[in-house]
Structure to design on (417 residues):
C-alpha cells in the first residue's frame, strides 16, 4: 500500500507496475480515494469506505478517461452514498438492471437456461417466445423491472376471460422469466436490485389459477376401423398428392405408437432401423428427455417402408414438410385430423391419438404400466422406475404387435360391413 501526494497525470503515469497482484496508492482528498495499478499496467480510480460497518470498494473508472477533479467528485458522491447506508456496487447494478427489457430477459433465458437434462427443448423455447412476442407483445420492450403485481393481476384476468389455459401458460412463463431476471442481476451482497419479489408470485396470492380439466378424448374404439380405412385410402399415391400421403402416414404412425406429435413428426431416417433383425426406431428428442427404442409391428414396418419408397433425395425426415416450406418436417396433419374428427364425432387434437393408443392397449388387455412405458411415460413406482427397462423397449414387441393386429382387424370388419 502506498500514498499519492499529487493527483496529477504525471504522478499517476509514474506509478510503478507491481510484479504480481495489484497495488493501491491512496490520496488524502477525499479520504478513501486511490489509484489501483494492476500487473498489466492498467490504472483506475477507486474509492473505499464502509457501508453498515462493512468495507466497500468501488471502481470509479480508468485513469486515462477521467481527470483528477472528476474522479474526486465521483468519489465524494460514492462516499456520501456509503454514509447513507447505500452500497454503490448495488446501486450501479440497479441502474444497469433497471433498463433491461422483458424481451432481453427472454433472449438470455432461452439461450442460457439449463435444466437437469440440459438446454431447453425447441418446443419450450417456441412457447416462451410466443408468450413474450405475441401474448405479451405490449410488454416486450418495456423494462422488466416495471412489471408490477397489479399489472399482472389485471392482465391475467383479461386473458382468462377469453383464453384461460393460455393465461395460465403465459403467466407460468412470465414467472420463470421474472425469476431469471432477479437471479441474473443479483448484487454482490446478495440483494436484488430489481424485482425483490417476483410480481407474478405476488399476484397469485390474490388470484387463482384457472382450472385445467384433464382431457379424456380419444377415437371411439368402434370408429377405429372406419378411421383406419380413411387413412389407408389417403396413402394411395395415385389418388392423393405426396403431402396428403405423408399426413395420413403421420396420423397412422401416431395411432400405432402413441408417440407425441413433436416426437413423431421430427423422426429422422437415421433413427429408423428397418433392416434390423427386429426392426425398431428411436425417439431421441422426447418431452422427458428419455431416449427410447421402440419395436415395430409388421404394420408399422410396412408404413415406414412405404415412406422410404417415396423418400426424396435430400429428405432427412420421415415426414418431410411440403416443398418450399420454411420448416424441415411436418408440424401436424390438420386436414387429415379434421376428417378423422368428423368420423369420430368430436374435435380431436394430436394428443388424443396418444390416448387412443392407450385405450387400444387396455382393450387388448395389455397392462397399463406397459402402455405407459410404450408412450414414454416414466413410471411412478420405485419398482418400475429402477428395476424395469424403460429405454430399450424391444421386449414389448408382442404388445406392440397385438395393438397393430387389433387395429387391422377393426379395419377388415369395416370393409366387410
Amino acid at each position: 500500500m502506498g500514498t499519492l501526494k499529487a493527483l496529477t497525470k504525471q504522478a499517476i503515469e509514474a506509478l510503478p507496475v507491481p510484479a504480481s497482484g495489484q497495488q493501491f496508492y491512496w490520496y488524502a482528498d477525499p479520504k478513501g480515494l486511490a489509484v489501483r495499478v494492476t500487473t498489466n499496467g492498467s490504472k483506475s480510480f477507486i474509492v473505499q469506505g464502509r457501508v453498515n460497518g462493512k468495507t466497500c470498494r468501488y471502481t470509479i473508472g480508468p485513469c486515462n478517461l477521467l481527470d483528477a477533479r472528476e474522479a474526486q467528485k465521483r468519489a465524494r458522491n460514492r462516499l456520501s452514498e456509503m454514509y447513507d447506508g447505500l452500497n454503490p456496487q448495488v446501486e450501479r447494478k440497479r441502474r444497469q438492471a433497471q433498463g433491461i427489457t422483458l424481451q432481453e430477459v427472454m433472449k438470455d433465458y432461452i439461450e442460457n437456461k439449463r435444466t437437469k437434462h440440459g438446454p431447453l427443448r425447441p418446443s419450450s423455447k417456441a412457447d416462451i417466445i410466443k408468450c413474450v412476442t405475441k401474448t405479451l407483445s405490449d410488454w416486450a420492450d418495456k423494462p422488466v423491472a416495471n412489471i408490477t403485481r397489479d399489472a399482472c393481476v389485471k392482465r391475467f384476468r383479461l386473458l382468462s376471460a377469453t383464453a384461460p389455459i393460455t393465461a395460465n401458460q403465459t403467466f407460468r412463463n412470465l414467472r420463470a422469466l421474472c425469476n431469471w431476471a432477479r437471479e441474473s442481476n443479483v448484487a454482490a451482497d446478495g440483494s436484488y436490485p430489481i424485482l425483490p419479489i417476483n410480481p407474478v408470485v405476488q399476484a397469485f396470492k390474490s388470484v387463482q389459477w384457472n382450472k385445467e380439466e384433464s382431457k379424456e378424448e380419444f377415437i371411439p374404439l368402434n370408429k377405429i376401423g372406419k378411421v383406419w380405412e380413411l387413412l389407408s385410402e389417403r396413402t394411395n399415391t395415385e389418388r392423393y398428392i405426396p403431402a396428403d400421403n405423408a399426413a395420413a402416414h403421420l396420423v397412422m404412425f401416431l395411432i400405432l405408437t402413441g408417440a407425441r406429435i413433436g416426437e413423431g413428426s421430427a423422426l429422422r431416417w437415421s433413427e429408423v432401423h428397418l433392416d434390423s433383425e427386429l426392426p425398431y426406431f428411436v425417439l431421441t428428442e422426447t418431452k422427458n428427455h428419455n431416449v427410447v427404442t421402440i419395436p415395430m409391428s409388421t404394420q408399422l414396418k410396412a408404413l415406414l417402408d412405404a415412406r422410404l419408397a417415396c423418400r426424396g433425395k435430400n429428405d432427412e425426415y420421415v415426414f418431410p414438410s411440403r416443398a418450399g416450406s420454411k420448416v424441415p418436417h411436418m408440424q401436424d396433419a390438420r386436414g387429415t385430423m379434421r376428417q378423422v374428427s368428423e368420423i369420430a364425432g368430436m374435435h380431436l387434437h394430436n394428443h388424443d391419438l396418444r390416448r387412443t393408443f392407450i385405450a387400444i392397449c387396455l382393450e387388448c388387455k395389455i397392462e397399463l404400466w406397459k402402455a405407459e412405458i410404450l408412450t414414454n411415460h416414466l413410471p411412478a413406482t420405485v419398482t418400475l422406475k429402477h428395476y424395469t427397462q424403460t429405454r430399450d423397449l424391444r421386449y414389448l414387441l408382442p404388445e406392440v404387435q397385438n395393438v397393430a393386429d387389433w387395429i387391422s382387424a377393426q379395419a377388415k370388419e369395416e370393409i366387410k360391413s
